């Protein structure tokens, strides 16, 4: 999936010292190519950071770091994070090409799902109904149908928070110094429970339930997603969640903490030194 740059003059540089905290979804109530050229027309005085077309193309009109003009007029808002200031300063806007009342196409849904994954990860946006909203939450009077009752909220949230199924596992010992940890093998890689492994390696382990992210201290910033990610310094490792326990790939986690990983085939033990 890629993003085509289609700049709009309708924006303000910077974000008035605010942070991005949420995504606002819209529909254009117009079709390509006119809807894109309108958002690029200075007379529109309107824009969005992104436009996702029916055929699954993604255009970016305004940089994330700048303020697009997509949700500035607030009228009987229903949003707990609205603080009385212009929402454009602290949101990203995604327009979807559709006429009022239309559903997204499947290609469009896949594209916007991918875009939401990128943006929630890049900006550390929690995946919930306060941080991914529709325009109607900010203007329930004139934008009640934006993005409309057919917008696929359930699928979007389900896909963004999905835990992928884990293939068959077998057990393996992981030894760190004198500590023995029971790990598992998945597709020829050794995984160990991240808390036990991190502690054996002398690190503090924190869990951010908002973003389903394990943070191995010292953490980096700006990393999350709906799936189980493990953040170590500036590396992101894909872990697996089994019976509510997070398992980290031993080699990836140990090596990113500066340790070496070997395999003792006689005792079938992963040795971390
Ligand atoms: Zn809108």
Task: Please tag this protein with its features.
273 residues, alpha/beta, Lysozyme-like, six-stranded mixed β-sheet, elongated, binds zinc ion
Radius of gyration: 22 Å
Write out the strand line-up for the largest beta sheet, numbering strands in chain order. 16-17-11-10-9-19-18
Strand content: 25-35%
List the total number of helices.
5
User: What CATH architecture of the largest domain do you see?
Assistant: 3-Layer(aba) Sandwich
**How many individual domains?**
2
- Small-molecule binders: zinc ion
CATH class descriptor name of the largest domain:
Alpha Beta
Describe the protein in words.
Helix content is 16%, strand content 29%. The protein contains 5 helices and 19 strands. The longest helix is centred in the middle third of the chain and has 17 residues, at 106-122. The structure holds zinc ion. Zinc ion (ZN) binds at residues 26, 135, 143, 146. The site of zinc ion has 4 residues, from loops.
Break the fold down into its secondary structure elements and pairings:
Elements: E1 3-5, E2 11-12, E3 22-27, H1 34-39, E4 50-52, E5 58-60, E6 67-68, E7 91-96, H2 106-122, E8 132-134, H3 153-160, E9 170-176, E10 179-186, E11 189-193, H4 194-200, E12 205-208, E13 213-216, E14 229-232, E15 235-238, E16 240-242, E17 245-249, H5 250-256, E18 261-264, E19 269-272
Parallel strand pairs: 1-5, 3-7, 3-8, 4-7, 9-19, 13-14
Antiparallel strand pairs: 2-6, 4-5, 9-10, 10-11, 11-17, 12-13, 14-15, 16-17, 18-19
The structure holds zinc ion.
């Amino acid at each position: 999936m890629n993003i085509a740059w289609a700049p709009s003059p309708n924006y303000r540089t910077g974000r008035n010292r605010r942070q991005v905290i949420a995504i606002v979804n819209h529909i254009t109530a117009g079709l390509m190519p006119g809807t894109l050229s309108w958002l690029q027309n200075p007379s529109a005085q309107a824009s969005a950071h992104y436009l996702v077309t029916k055929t699954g193309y993604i255009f970016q009109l305004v940089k994330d770091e700048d303020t697009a003009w997509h949700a500035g007029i607030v009228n009987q808002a229903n949003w707990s994070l609205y603080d009385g200031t212009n929402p454009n300063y602290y949101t990203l806007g995604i327009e979807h090409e559709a006429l009022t009342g239309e559903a997204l196409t499947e290609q469009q849904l896949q594209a916007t799902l991918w875009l939401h994954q990128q943006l929630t990860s890049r900006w550390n946006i929690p995946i919930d109904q306060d941080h991914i909203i529709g325009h109607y939450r900010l203007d329930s009077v004139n934008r009640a149908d934006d993005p409309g009752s057919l917008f696929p909220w359930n699928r979007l949230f389900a896909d963004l928070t999905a835990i992928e199924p884990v293939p068959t596992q077998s057990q393996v010992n992981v030894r760190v110094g004198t500590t023995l940890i029971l790990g598992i093998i998945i597709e020829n890689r050794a995984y160990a429970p991240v808390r036990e492994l991190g502690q054996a390696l002398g690190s503090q382990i924190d869990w951010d339930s908002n973003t389903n992210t394990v943070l191995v201290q010292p953490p980096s910033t700006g990393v999350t997603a709906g799936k189980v990610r493990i953040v170590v310094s500036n590396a992101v490792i894909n872990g697996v969640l089994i019976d509510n326990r997070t398992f980290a790939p031993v080699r990836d986690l140990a090596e990113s903490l500066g340790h070496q990983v070997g395999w003792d085939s006689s005792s079938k033990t992963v040795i971390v030194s």
